[in-house]
Amino acid sequence: MSTSEGGNQTGPAVFETVLTASDQSLAAFDEERKTVLTRIQHFLHSYPTMVPFFVLLLGVAIFAFLVGGKFFAPFNLSLILQQVTIIGVLGIAQTLIILTAGIDLSVGAIMVLSSIVMGRLAVESGVPVYFSFPLGLATGLLCGWLNGVLVTKLRLPPFIVTLGTWSIFGALIIFYSKSQTIRQQEVEAVASFLQWTGYALNDGLRDSYAWLRQAIGSDSWPDWTFRFGGARITYGSVLMLLMAIAAWYMLNRTAFGRHVYATGDDPDAARLAGINTSRTLLAVYTIAGLICAVAGWVLIGRIGAISPNSGANANLDSITAVVIGGTSLFGGRGSIVGTLIGALIVGAFRNGLVLYGLDALWQEFAVGVLIIVAVTLDQWIRRVAA
């Protein structure tokens, strides 16, 4: 240890003295107290499906007040379900794509093109329905695959890719259909299977039950009519629910589903984690194309005929259902259940406004307001993760 003139010590001892005299208290970081609004924000971030669910309940309560019991009539409720079936199926496909932070503007065109292929092959070309139907499904799958290839291989934005393929598929619809509609009677005479999704489940259960009674030879069984309180449930609606269950299981119970969420949330982090994001995107667009082809089958059952002019608003309606259902346009967050609720919200609002006697112009106005509110709410909820 060295000393300076005057006897003052210099060197390490000075520093040891300073450290001894320093403040020994520990830093404390008190957690900021959360307000009620912040707690709601965190809750909705953790359970995004609750937002559309509350909106649906609110809408039902409003129309119950405005139009009364007519809104809850079994036939009217089944009508709402039939009206949202096509949008619900397309919404499942759109959800898969938006979860990857993409968007597909061609889902409606793929749906119509697939219905045109399976319909014209069966009715106009005389191809057996067990060949024409799979070829229609293959058409949708191929269209989805093409979208996926353009997005993954050429690294093009999904919005631009699907905007271009929407025009391409639309031109193919006009070219192949020759802008002609195949009437309901023609489809029923040659390929009634294509209309199966429009048949009532009530009638199918009744006919099956009658056949069983006849086969067993027992007239003592009660003659059930399967009326469901006056509601008419179609096979298309049942098919939509089964597809939603399958998609929910894929997203929540398989590794592929986790890859979809990871790719949409942060593709760079997903790649570093060993996920092949290009292969995941290609699979998502291909599966979505196949689902759109199934929607084409449901479309034939819904209108009975095969028309190139059907499904004009299907693209925007599917996006509306997904956004209102709580799926984030930025990817990585959302659910199939929310999309179905979103489709029901759109259907319930339009049906309720019709019963109330409001003009169709204001129906579109209401849907537009719902979209803006849903996106605004999504932005507010996402600030939790920021």
Round the mean pLDDT to the nearest integer and report it.
84
How many separate domains?
A: 1
Structural class: mainly alpha
CA radius of gyration: 29 Å
Query: Main beta sheet, described?
Result: 2 strands, antiparallel
Give the CA-based shape.
Answer: globular
User: Gap between N and C termini, in Å?
Assistant: 54 Å
DSSP strand tally: 2
Strand order of the main beta sheet, please? 1-2
Order of helices and strands: EEHHHHHHHHHHHHHHHH
Low-confidence sequence ranges: none
Which topology does CATH recognise? ABC transporter involved in vitamin B12 uptake, BtuC
Number of helices: 16
Question: What labels would you give this structure?
Answer:
single chain; 386 residues; mainly alpha; ABC transporter involved in vitamin B12 uptake, BtuC; two-stranded antiparallel ribbon; 16 helices; 69% helix; globular
Write a short abstract of this structure.
The chain is mainly α and 386 residues long. Helices cover 69% and strands 1% of the residues. It has 16 helices and 2 strands.
